[in-house]
Structure prediction request, 415 residues.
Amino acid sequence: MYTQEEVLDFVQEEDVKFIRLAFFDIAGKQKNISIMPTELERAFNEGIAIDASGVLGFEGPEKSDLFLLPDPSTLAIIPWRPMTGKVVRMFCDIQTPDGQAYKKDSRSLLKAACQRLKKECGIELMVGTEVEFYLFKLDEKGEPTKVPFDRASYMDIAPEDHGENIRRDICFTLEQMGITPEASHHEEGPGQNEIDFRYSDALTAADNVSTFKWIVNTKAASNGLYADFSPKPLAGEAGNGMHINISYRKAGAGSGVARAAGNVASAGAGRDEELLPYLLGGIYKYIEEITYFLNPSENSYNRLGSSKAPKYVSWGRENRSALIRLPATKGSARLELRSPDPLCNIYLALTLIINAVIEGIQNKIKAPASTEENLFDNKVAARLGFKTLPQSLEEAREIAEKSTFVKAVLGDFEF
Prediction:
């Protein structure tokens, strides 16, 4: 957690020659501009100008000046670049010329959501993600194919699993950049892999997912492969999900990794009480309205309802067919949201989830009864009468556009 002064000293003492200032477009795709060390102090004090009209979802040419201000706490050396004349990266806040936070900067929106949760509810969310991706071979021209890197299946080992060396390389690189992976393994689909992250605060978790996807793409390319995070790369095979595990801790209880939940004072309650049912209730209530942001491509809806991907608005204890699962734990309680996929803008996704949690806590929202039945059996699900998630991107967009909740959180978001 570097300060501005420490970053300036680090750059001078550690032979840093390039500083990458990273930010995200409205879809969550990472962008960056590189500056020289001589420009770093100006970047901290004034910001580095960019042309917003060239960024997906940002402003048109008539209002295109924005400024990047680096967040010194996110400094990381890029380990696959030369160690002589190092390259470092910092995530940035985006500001308008008058110094205001840019309304379409999804990272700033998540920061504001985290601050609101602390202020109004006295807690912060702890988030751990499980991200899946496929590895495909390239053709003779170096273009991606749909030929999987291997034909292994769930948790297979070498020689069937060809991805173990790449996963190891990815995990080592994550550690070099200050990120702690929790587990890695081959997933259900041919050439499919998963890497899970330990819990951290929501903003750090989002930064870690973004860094992780960059690393995976880079390591795949260096091994002559293509990494595919799309929700349904192969028809008839398992899709790529990004399960989001959520617990909470009292605000100010510490920093870094934690699995804290338990009892904390809720806003206006006047006593300690278990909040997890209200976290669950808030997410459950608004899940249809925010699905457009959790599942942002048409391909997303080909994944939902098959191969462990939930389709019905439901929750259950230890029930992997439910949309929200309360896993068996030997520590603090948590919930797992199973519908999001890796193409989502993780910053917008967590912003909406946190605001749903605030609604759940403040209004003491509780979900209906849990289900212990197998909802992957459509006959069983039909008998139980659960509502489904939106069945297409267009349906999800229409629901989001009509949502007063989404509008209150994101303002005049352009769908």
